[in-house]
Amino acid sequence: MFNSKKLLKRIGAGAIALVMTLSLLAAGIDFDTINAKADGVVTATITYTAQFDGSFKDVKVNVPVSSDTAESFGYTDTLAQNQGVSVLDVLVQMHKDIFPEFTADSTQANKEQYFKTEYNNYYHSWSITNAFAKGESACSYYINHAMCGGLSDKVDDGNVVEAWYYQVGWSDLYTSFEDVVSEGGYLSGKLVKYGFDENYSPVVFPLANIDLGWLNLDTLEIVPAVSADANPYANEVVKTNDEGVFQFAVPEVSGNYLLTELDGATNNIPLIRTLCIDYPTSPKVTTSPKSMDERRAIYAGAGKYLSDTNPSIAYGDYKEGHLIGLGRAGYPVSGGLYAGYYDSVRNYLATHNNRFSSVTECAKVVVALNAIGYDPTNIDGVGITDQLSAISEVDSVYGYAYALIALDTKGYGSFARETYIANLLDAQFENGAWGWDGTNVDVDTTGMVLAALAPYYNSNDSVREAVDRALEYLSRVQGADGTYTSGTNENSNTTAMVVLGLSELGLDASTDSRFVKNGVSAVDALCSFSVDGGGFGWTDNDDVNDYATYQSYYALGSYFRHTSNMKRLFDMTNESSYSSPDGAVTIIDPYGVLPAQVFITIQRITSGEVYDNVAALIKAAFSKVLNMAVYEIDLFDASNTQLHQLNGKVYAKIRSPFPLIDGYKYVAYRVDGDRLIACDVIVDGDYILIGTNHFSTFVVAEVPADETPQNVTTLVSPPKTGDNLGLFIALIALIIASGTFATIRYKNKSK
Fold this sequence. Notes:
The chain is α+β, with helices and mostly antiparallel strands and 751 residues long. α10 packs antiparallel against α11 and α12 packs parallel to α14 (546-563).
């Protein structure tokens, strides 16, 4: 399906030079290894386009090319004729079709006036030195819209070969589309031409009043760019304006398109080939909906990859993101990993006047240290959080966001906080997005800024307005498959930053309809980049990319913290409760028994062997059982390992399964084979809290208030050091009174 976000990538002069340099170094033949061609000529049916002098000179669709075409003209490649058709064969065929006078018979015309190859002794390869009768020149070529290795590369049936001419001086209308933004089925940007002035200095010219259109790369059909009544822009145009700016609708017919300039006087024949390093292609990853169990497994696999491949991390390795993800998840890591990083920070500070090179660097360390359990306010007596307030040292949107996030990890006091917020609001684009340096729209940075502004959404009207605009933008630019794009690439990193921003705001990126496209949510799309065996790919799900893995990992960590009713990823104050995604059970952890991240599942059992066994046990313990409910409550850590025995007591809060009748009481037991093990029970209105240090099967029953149970085991689990019953009761009372079982979440404003 057509995806407008994959159309374009900004082409700078350096990138163009690189394309041409690589083209000039096309792989060729070593004189010492030339072998005689084998018998057996073959043919390939291909499509080709040829462009020079500012226009497409020839387009052939599904034409046969023989594997001896180049040889019949006296050219040589290393691909045996019985092995297939080479790029060189196709280029010679192009010249035959375009120039009738181009012939192998030197008595009638010199073929090298049209096409010439030359051996380069320095690079030990052949290159094209004359093409399309242009004299001293360079010719570049693609196979299937991608740069190939050289003239001897094989061309198969159905392939597309494109060739075009570069004039010496590289000034032959290098058309480029700048600052392209895709929103809601419309495309805007600027059309410019790279050239040289009279002093041979590079100049960029806007191309005004130019007809624009789409070249369908699958059919070579030309589709003119058109406006529509639904165009949200006030200034609708089909041509570029005096500054080269354009705004128009994308094609309605699905396909892979190349945006190009048209010559309106010649029936919309493509006039100039748009130079693109990356052509729009079908996505490398097919996205699909994922279950919560699948997401958890993918999350655990990424944690395992990061843990296994990083036995040690030191400051300067640029892996603070790894530590943030692993530390906040509580994933089991190799011994000494965190202590080793802390020591490396201590050593760096001792040799660098107790300061980092920038506020952004300092912010990353502050967040990482808090995530792994170290105090950044006292590192051998040095408090690095002070550097977070060095406003004059921050000069980028990303820097403002990271500094703000670091300040809010533990609520550090700083006069710089309001400045950072104000600077972020000032840097927002009209369309609702932010950019890394404040000049170009960037989805990744937009997600990061949302994470930074999340704590202020409910208290600052200006922040609320800015966030709402950003959310509208992110909903508009999400791909039809649920992914997000940077440049021309749908990728996990950009999608991860959106999931992070949404989750930090308290939005469910897996269910919020604004971020679900064709049944695939942003979370589903991100998980679709996971690689079998653990980790994430960047633009595919075949090869693990370390950077993509750690960013996707902590983004999913933020998502799971939201669905578990936990504090934000970047809110690193003490945790007190965890919930199942459906909210059916909340675990209160007053003593800090549980790991950093916990997944909770609850299932009510109403029949079967387990139910019958529990019913027999509870009826044997009491003379009368008015009501009974059986539950399976399971806990899993970030590695997806089930937690049974805990080193201390926690409380599972569930809704009362039945009303309490006068003269009766609630009792709760953990079922251990043929034993009932008594649990603490605290009644909180319509809820009950079950105190336990072990998770498996539980029964809640309503029994006579004055009856003592028979055949019930009471296990006493000593509290952790420093705990006492009075403290716990006071804490529970405080939790109930303050209503902290419910977390304030982001409220979507209706538009």
